[in-house]
């Protein structure tokens, strides 16, 4: 009885929300009545989605990584320096490596120095941003055509970044569901103490998680740089909010312990749709920031709201039962 | 006139009905015991009275007036204060600040620290404690903290004081202080609800007893009209000698040998051994170091000195992972927060220790995982709806079976189990005992740490008693009874002549 | 943990920050004595006022076991409020309005945290975005100059008995913060919540109300810092406060307030703010690039965090 009454916002709720939202947009705005609008939406979403794969792991483990936007900027700044010198393929590999190093550094701070994740990554948010400025004080434009094609071309009408996101998502899902690392991530998010007793090395798992975040963030940075065609140290300011929103809207609990990469990707598309809808209805970009903040608060408070609703349902149920019993006893008397 | 009238209180938690339709009344000025086995609902009922939980349905009347107790403040206003089983102190605050946290004395807006400390000192003196009001609570011993907790409840000058297992961490002397205190409170007209599973205390202190069983009200009796046996019968709902009795079987070779294990401030010079097939109990008061000793064996606490040998090989004790590989299984006492992975499925919970052995090329094999689950389901009579059910939705007994299965899945030779039946209903308890017995028969060495003396006495072949970090009792099956164990546990006597040490 | 390490950490909690300040001072003395000259130190002290004032409030938040990441955005919003209104309603009313806005932001934070059950740093992360958005919308994303209302400058340029007003302000805020922390119910309750929230609740402390008050304190102090900042620059802008929360948090953690809550060190936060200000000024005088200065602050924060990490590690080893 109680279970049926409980609201399930998680799992596939976001998918239905997305589909309904799309129908509304198609119905009310002519801008959304062609395929290119949706191609743009999923391309935009894939940047968030790729980075979101790593962030999903972090949030499942019960932490937050605030440094991803700065990692994107730093990777991008280094990338634009490398491209003219060594060509596309080697620079991409090197950037992925750089991402892994940045992520591992975060991981070591958190796992070995015992610094709470969000404050360690808060410090690194400023640290990596400053490093990006040191690397590239002025914007650098990408000249390499092949590199730009990576994000602007299509495969059977599907933007390449979106395909990259799907590949990253599949890899992430396999790691999360099918490997010891994934299970250990979930375990840590449920209870550090229980994980320790079960013989799980928490520091090792954490370092691997942040390493993955670094890798996926670097991949996102490569796609973003290719699409923007330039780098500058201040780029993608606030990107971490979008990524965290996507993961949390996707139903991954902020307290950790459960989550899904598929729904993170769907939520990324949902957010990109909102953005593009706000553009289509000409909502001022500053106003958009407030709206983003409100969405974030909403996403964060889903659990709180759910608790209220469920409390209310439980209470009204027991009140009803009590009424029934009273009526019953009155009838009996 | 009844000071408290509880009518038709019900309360459920996910997966368990903690209280159903409980009604009882408490007279003004009496010491009223609430007894029942673990999981009978005593603590839940007290938490509802104290405002920590809210009942799903039912009513509470105090002095004939209906009370809406939605918060701790509401309860305090209604004149109820509670000493909870778990310590509710703020370690970074002083003794005085802890005691007066809810009503700090002020001059205008300025805190009146002098008055606060003076009043705390008065309270401390009246309780014969050796504390200073300015001591940091985090620096006190467990039993001192317990006394601060009691002082806190008394300081509210409530008419109704609820004490939930107040003696769990106290030594004999402190228990005497508490007894005197309770008698004095009673003389001054306070009403006391006393929860304990130490029956001796019930007979020493209380006027009337109410019995709860499996969340239901059983009866209220005058204490003097009851015998020890009557009370136990009411609590468990069956004859006492139907209590689980181990059938006894031959023991094998010594498997685990602990020598001179020491950890400053926790335990010292602990030596004992366990034989294959043996069920070894470990008893002692709360805070005596009994958990710490077995946690050290499992690698959760690093000892300063001493050795542990398993099957002739000295262990390195590098941590739980090493311990699991060496063949030690461990089931925690804190199932909810340190045992289960609440939001994960039952299947994932089972295989957490042995992922490597069911993986191929780094990928976990579905088939092998499922096979393991079915095996243990059959062997342990586990009840769940599907392999993808979240473990948090199972009953306490089934969760415990999963923890036990997880420990066994890694092929352990020694099993350490803390509080094997805490928070488990009566039926599942018997099942756990049977399982332990069976495992022992098949040659596993089992160490059971428990604060339930009847449990230890009925299932263990031998019992170690710990007092202030040292082993003060090594009792064979024939020597084990509640009185002897308590004597050793409070340091009044030492008996180390049990066999096979 | 043996007695010596215990005593070391007890000493470190109280005086560690002073030792660091002294060490940094000596290093600067060796590099360029001008940095530690009396006149520059006076500047350092004045410059520390904005960070310091916000850090005083932040100490309460961290002591209660929380964080306020929105102080930078509150500061920005407040500078906009002052700049947009000063020409119409005059200096004092606009300052009053600005402080009210700070309080309001604090109430919003507090309500989100307590009523929607969101962890403090997560909630304030979201409001950081929202408050900054509000500032952008309000100012239309432009810098608002107060060229006609130079009277706002009095807070940052004048002195009383030779002591800069800024210094008087920051010292006054810390004296008040200390008194509130040590000698009021609110102070004890804040520590109680940070020490053990469940126990605080069980002891009958109204945790929600106290937490809202804590975030009102951080909002108000951030607003004070904002007024001072708008006085310094005679400008209001939605991006003035970017990264300001980092300085405030760094000061508090450097000052020895425990991240785990329950143990605050008000004067430590003051010295932490001074240290940051000294490092900034020293690097400036040494001609270090802006980007490296930013990096230096992040490194200092990591350093402070590592020390508290090492403390946790030594305590855990003792378990």
Q: Could you estimate the helical fraction of the residues of chain A in percent?
A: over 70%
Biggest β-sheet of chain B: count, sense, barrel?
6 strands, mixed
Q: Order of strands side by side in the largest beta sheet of chain A? A: 1-4
Radius of gyration of chain A: 22 Å
Give the second-level CATH assignment, the architecture of chain A. Orthogonal Bundle
Strand content of chain B: 25-35%
Mean pLDDT of chain A: 87
Number of helices of chain A: 14
Highest CATH level, the class of the largest domain in chain B: Alpha Beta
Low-confidence stretches of chain A: 1-10
CATH architecture descriptor of the largest domain in chain B: 3-Layer(aba) Sandwich
How would you characterize the overall build of this protein?
- The complex is a heterotrimer of chains A (333), B (501) and C (319).
- Chain A is mainly alpha-helical and 333 residues long.
- Chain A has a single domain (2-319), classed as Orthogonal Bundle (ABC transporter involved in vitamin B12 uptake, BtuC), CATH 1.10.3470.
- Chain A is 77% helix and 2% strand.
- Chain B is built from 17 helices and 24 strands.
- Chain B is of the alpha/beta class and 501 residues long.
- Chain B folds into 3 domains: 2-239, P-loop containing nucleotide triphosphate hydrolases (Rossmann fold, 3-Layer(aba) Sandwich), CATH 3.40.50.300; 252-327 and 413-424 and 438-501, P-loop containing nucleotide triphosphate hydrolases (Rossmann fold); 334-411, no CATH class.
- Chain C has 319 residues and is mainly α.
- Chain C has 13 helices and 4 strands.
- Chain C has helices spanning 3-31, 38-63, 71-89, 91-115, 120-139, 154-157, 165-183, 185-195, 197-202, 207-233, 244-254, 266-285, 290-317; strands at residues 144-145, 159-160, 163-164, 235-236.
- Chain C has a two-stranded antiparallel sheet.
- In chain C, helix 2 (38-63) packs across helix 11 (244-254) and helix 11 (244-254) runs parallel beside helix 13.
- The mean pLDDT of chain C is 90.
């Amino acid at each position: 009885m109680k279970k049926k009454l409980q609201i399930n916002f998680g799992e596939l709720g976001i998918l239905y929300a997305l589909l309904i939202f799309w129908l509304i947009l198609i119905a009310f705005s002519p801008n959304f009545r062609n395929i290119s609008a949706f191609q743009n939406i999923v391309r935009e979403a894939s940047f968030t989605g790729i980075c979101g794969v790593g962030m999903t792991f972090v949030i499942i483990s019960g932490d937050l990584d605030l440094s991803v936007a700065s990692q994107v900027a730093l990777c991008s700044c280094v990338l634009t320096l490398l491209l003219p010198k060594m060509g596309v393929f080697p620079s991409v590999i090197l950037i992925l490596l750089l991402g892994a190093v940045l992520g591992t550094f975060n991981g070591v701070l958190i796992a070995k120095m015992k610094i709470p994740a969000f404050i360690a990554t808060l410090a690194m948010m400023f640290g990596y941003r400053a490093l990006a400025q040191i690397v590239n004080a002025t914007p650098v434009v990408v000249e390499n055509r092949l590199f730009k094609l990576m994000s602007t071309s299509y495969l059977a009408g599907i933007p390449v970044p979106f395909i990259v996101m799907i590949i990253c998502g599949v890899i992430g899902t396999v790691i999360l569901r099918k490997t010891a690392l994934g299970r250990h991530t979930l375990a840590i998010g449920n209870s550090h103490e229980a994980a320790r007793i079960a013989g799980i090395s928490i520091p090792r798992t954490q370092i691997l998680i942040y390493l993955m975040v670094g890798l996926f963030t670097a991949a996102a940075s490569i796609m973003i740089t290719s699409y923007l065609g330039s780098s500058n140290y201040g780029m993608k300011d606030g990107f971490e909010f979008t990524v965290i929103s996507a993961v949390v809207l996707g139903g991954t609990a902020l307290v950790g312990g459960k989550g899904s990469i598929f729904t993170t990707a769907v939520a990324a598309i949902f957010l990109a749709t909102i953005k593009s809808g706000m553009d289509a209805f000409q909502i001022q970009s500053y106003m958009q920031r407030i709206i983003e903040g409100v969405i974030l608060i909403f996403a964060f408070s889903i659990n709180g709201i759910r608790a209220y609703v469920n409390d209310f349902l439980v209470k009204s149920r027991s009140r009803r039962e009590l009424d029934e019993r009273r009526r019953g006893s009155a009838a009996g008397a | 006139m009844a000071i408290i009238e509880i009518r038709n209180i019900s309360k459920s938690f996910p997966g368990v009905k903690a209280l159903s339709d409980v009604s009882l009344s408490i007279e003004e000025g009496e010491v009223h015991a609430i007894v029942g086995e673990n999981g009978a609902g005593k603590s839940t009922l007290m938490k509802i009275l104290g405002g920590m939980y809210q009942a799903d349905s039912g009513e509470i009347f105090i002095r004939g007036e209906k009370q809406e107790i939605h918060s701790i403040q509401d309860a305090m206003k209604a004149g109820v204060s509670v000493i909870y089983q778990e310590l509710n102190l703020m370690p970074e605050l002083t003794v005085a600040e802890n005691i007066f946290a809810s009503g700090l004395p002020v001059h205008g807006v300025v805190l009146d620290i002098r008055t606060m400390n003076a009043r705390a000192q008065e309270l401390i003196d009246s309780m014969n404690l050796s504390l200073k009001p300015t001591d940091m609570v985090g620096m006190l011993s467990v039993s001192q903290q317990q006394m601060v907790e009691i002082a806190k409840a008394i300081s509210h000058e409530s008419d109704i004081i609820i004490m939930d297992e107040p003696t769990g961490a106290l030594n004999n002397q402190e228990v005497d202080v508490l007894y005197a205190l309770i008698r004095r409170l009673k003389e001054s007209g306070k009403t006391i609800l006393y929860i304990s599973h130490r029956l001796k205390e019930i007979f020493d202190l209380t006027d009337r007893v109410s019995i709860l069983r499996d969340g239901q009200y059983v009866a209220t009796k005058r204490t003097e009209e009851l015998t020890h046996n009557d009370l136990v019968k009411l609590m468990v709902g069956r004859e006492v000698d139907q209590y689980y009795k181990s059938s006894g079987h031959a023991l094998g070779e010594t498997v685990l040998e602990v020598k001179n294990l020491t950890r400053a401030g926790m335990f010292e010079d602990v030596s004992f051994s366990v034989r294959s097939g043996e069920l070894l109990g470990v008893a002692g008061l709360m805070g005596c170091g009994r958990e710490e000793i077995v946690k050290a064996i499992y690698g959760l606490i690093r000892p300063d000195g001493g050795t542990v040998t398993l099957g002739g090989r000295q262990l390195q004790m590098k941590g739980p992972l090493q311990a699991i590989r060496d063949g030690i299984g461990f089931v925690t006492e804190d199932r909810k927060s340190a045992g289960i992975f609440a939001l994960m499925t039952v299947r994932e919970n089972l295989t957490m220790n042995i992922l490597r052995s069911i993986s191929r090329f780094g990928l976990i094999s579905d088939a092998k995982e499922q096979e393991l689950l079915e095996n243990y389901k059959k062997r342990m009579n586990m009840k769940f709806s599907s392999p993808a059910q979240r473990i948090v939705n199972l009953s306490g007994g089934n969760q415990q079976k999963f923890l036990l299965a997880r420990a066994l899945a890694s092929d352990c030779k020694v099993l350490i189990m803390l509080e094997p039946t805490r928070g488990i209903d009566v039926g599942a308890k018997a099942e756990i005992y049977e399982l332990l017995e069976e495992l022992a028969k098949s040659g596993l060495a089992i160490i059971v740490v428990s604060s339930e003396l009847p449990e230890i006495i009925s299932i263990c072949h031998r019992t170690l008693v710990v007092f202030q970090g040292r082993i003060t009792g090594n009792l064979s099956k024939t020597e084990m009874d509640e009185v002897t164990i308590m004597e050793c546990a409070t340091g009044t006597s030492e008996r180390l002549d049990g066999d096979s040490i | 943990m043996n007695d010596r390490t215990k005593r070391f950490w007890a000493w470190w909690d109280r005086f560690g920050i002073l030792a660091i300040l002294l060490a940094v001072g000596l290093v600067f003395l060796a590099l360029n004595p001008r940095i530690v000259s009396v006149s520059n130190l006076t500047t350092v002290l004045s410059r520390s006022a904005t960070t310091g004032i916000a850090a005083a409030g932040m100490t309460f938040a961290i002591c209660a076991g929380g964080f306020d990441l929105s102080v930078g955005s509150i500061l920005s919003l407040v500078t906009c409020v002052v700049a947009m209104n000063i020409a119409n309603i005059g200096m004092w009313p606009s300052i009053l309005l600005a402080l009210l806005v700070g309080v309001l932001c604090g109430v919003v934070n507090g309500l989100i945290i307590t009523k929607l059950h969101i962890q403090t740093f997560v909630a304030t992360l979201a409001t950081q975005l929202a408050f900054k958005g509000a500032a952008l919308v309000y100012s239309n994303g432009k810098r608002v100059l107060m060229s006609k209302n130079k009277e706002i400058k009095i807070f940052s340029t004048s002195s009383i008995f030779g002591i800069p007003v800024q210094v008087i302000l920051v010292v006054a805020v810390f004296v008040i913060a200390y008194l509130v922390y040590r000698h009021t119910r609110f102070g004890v309750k804040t520590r109680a919540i940070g020490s053990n929230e469940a126990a605080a609740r069980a002891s009958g402390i109204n945790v929600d109300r106290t937490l809202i008050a804590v975030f009102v304190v951080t909002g108000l102090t951030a607003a004070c810092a904002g007024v001072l900042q708008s006085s310094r620059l005679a400008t209001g802008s939605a991006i003035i406060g970017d990264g300001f929360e980092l300085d405030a948090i760094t000061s508090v953690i450097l000052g020895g307030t425990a991240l785990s809550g329950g143990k605050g060190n008000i004067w430590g936060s003051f010295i932490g703010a001074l240290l940051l200000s000294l490092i900034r000024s020293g690097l400036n005088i040494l001609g270090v690039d802006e980007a490296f200065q930013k990096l230096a602050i992040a490194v200092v924060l990591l350093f402070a965090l590592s020390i508290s990490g090492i403390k946790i590690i030594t305590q855990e080893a003792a378990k």
